[in-house]
Write a structure and sequence with these properties.
about 500 residues, 2 domains, 20 helices, mainly alpha, two-stranded antiparallel sheet
Length: about 500
């Protein structure tokens, strides 16, 4: 292994770690100042570190590089890393007006360490580095979920998240150990080469199921989703936004890459009346269950956070359709979906944070008359909800369109995955109902008598407008993002 090359490939992660240490130093030095001022200073230092890491990635060039197969860097990996760092910056900016903790340096540092795990995960193609980066990300998110010490709900959510995460790690390790035992390799390409031509060995089938369970937990797919509603509801709002955006993108990227590379040759088929054993029908079943469970669960929610959690489960089902299509176009479609979804939920949780500060709750009734009290914020929420529902010309519509189209192309001889696409379309129609329930409260319900207009911080409004603007931009001109993903993936 070339350690010099490894160091060079890990410079973005090193920059973010240095920024995390500077955040701790700044917070310790300024301990006597108000929490809000410390949040701003630590947030600016952390954001500057993420921007510096993005700048380094941009200056690194377009050439592909690898370090003994442990860490890789190509155009697509670098693009995903930049998207993850951008999500981190937006999360930090949304956090600046938070008041749930006085441990500002520790909180911002954990966000940065979670980002390090995510960008390291995007560059991993080895069982060891995949597991290490998954656990670094997960441990950071567990603590971020529990960071509101004043809330028993936050502690309960973190405990559930941690317990389910521990079981998930066990399944993942068991699957990885079987893969190593069958192939004698830890690199994904080496595993695929060693297993080529052997067919679907019973132990390999068990390994596939174990890996799907492990990654299914990370992306909150049913039936491995039980932690998500409590984590989304109990975690501090910026933490929930980070889990729903950055964690989702990184996990789906490595999930798709792991299945397409490591299990190449044992895909099987999920086509109607043409099922064949492999990992594709396993993911097809998980996707179908996620779509049904997520949409039906969201209908009955009165908490907007839990509504977004069940919505995330349904969206995981839609994105799994892109994973199982396993071709270059489907990967670009999946990443377009994951990136635009991440931008959307970041904005949605930003609005939820404003409502919570104004009313102390995040129930549907708390949004009543929001359009009279905060019109700009309400308009941004309109864009976010309609994009999640898949209404054109917003980015959410094209995310679903590209993923569903790639699924139909992947099995044209049997109309491919038409059954799953029809189920997804039905789920999208159902989702429009509960997204409109939020907008009904915002625009049609009257605010409580005597409710004053809210003063929303200017930075928060700017961040929400930027996120809403990106959703509009990538919806009206989807090729701006999709073209880069296709070129990077090619």
């Amino acid at each position: 292994m070339n350690y010099g090359e490894t160091f060079r490939l890990c410079i973005p992660e090193i920059i973010v770690v240095v920024a995390a240490l500077l955040v701790l130093l700044a917070d310790f030095t300024l301990r006597g100042l108000e929490v809000r001022i410390r949040f701003w200073i630590c947030g600016l230092v952390a954001s500057a570190g993420c921007v510096a890491a993005i700048a380094w990635i941009l200056l690194a060039g377009d050439s592909a590089a690898t370090s003994g197969g442990m860490v890789v860097s190509d155009a697509l990996v670098r693009f995903i890393q930049m998207a993850l760092l951008a999500f981190t910056v937006f999360t930090i900016l949304v956090s600046l007006e938070s008041e749930f903790t006085g441990h500002v340096g520790e909180y911002v540092t954990l966000i940065l360490l979670g980002a390090v795990g995510m960008i390291f995960l995007a560059a991993s193609e080895d069982l060891l580095t995949v597991f290490l980066s998954l656990e670094l990300t997960s441990l950071s998110l567990y603590i971020l979920t529990a960071f509101n010490k004043r809330s028993i709900r936050s502690a309960e959510a973190a405990l559930k998240y941690f317990l389910f995460g521990g079981m998930s790690a066990a399944f993942t390790l068991f699957g990885f150990s079987l893969l190593y035992g069958l192939s004698g390799q830890t690199n994904l390409h080496g595993i695929a080469a060693a297993l080529a031509g052997q067919g679907l060995d019973p132990l390999l089938a068990v390994a596939i199921v174990m890996v799907v369970i492990g990654f299914g937990f990370k992306v909150a797919a049913a039936p491995f989703h039980l932690w998500a509603p409590d984590a989304y509801q109990g975690a501090p709002t910026p933490s929930a936004a980070f889990i729903a955006s950055g964690s989702k993108l990184a996990s789906f990227f490595i999930f798709a890459k792991f299945m397409a590379i490591g299990f190449a040759g044992v895909e099987g088929s999920g086509a109607f009346q043409a099922f064949a054993p492999g990992w594709v029908p396993v993911i097809a079943a998980v996707a179908a269950l996620s779509i049904v469970a997520g949409n039906l669960g969201a209908i009955v929610q009165s908490s907007v956070r839990r509504l977004l959690a069940y919505s995330a489960i349904a969206h995981a089902g839609y994105m799994l359709i892109g994973v199982m299509s396993h071709n270059q176009d489907s990967l670009a479609a999946l990443l377009y979906y994951a990136i635009t979804y991440g931008l959307t939920v970041l904005g949605a949780f930003g609005v939820v944070a404003i409502v919570e500060r104004g009313t102390g709750e995040e129930q549907l009734s708390s949004f009543a008359g929001l359009s009279r009290r905060a019109p700009i914020v309400s308009f941004c929420m309109l864009i976010f909800m309609l994009s999640l529902a898949g209404i054109p010309p917003l980015a959410g519509f094209f995310g679903k369109f590209y993923v569903f189209a790639s699924a139909l192309k992947s099995g044209a001889s049997h109309l491919g995955l038409l059954w799953l696409v029809l189920l997804a379309l039905g789920g999208s129609a159902v989702s429009l109902y509960y997204y409109l329930q939020v907008l009904k409260q915002i625009y049609l319900s009257e605010p409580p008598p005597g409710s004053p207009a809210w003063t929303v911080p200017a930075l928060t409004q700017i961040v929400l407008c930027i996120l809403a603007g990106l959703i509009l931009l990538f919806g009206c001109a989807p090729e701006l993002l999709l073209r880069h993903l296709v070129l990077a993936g090619g």
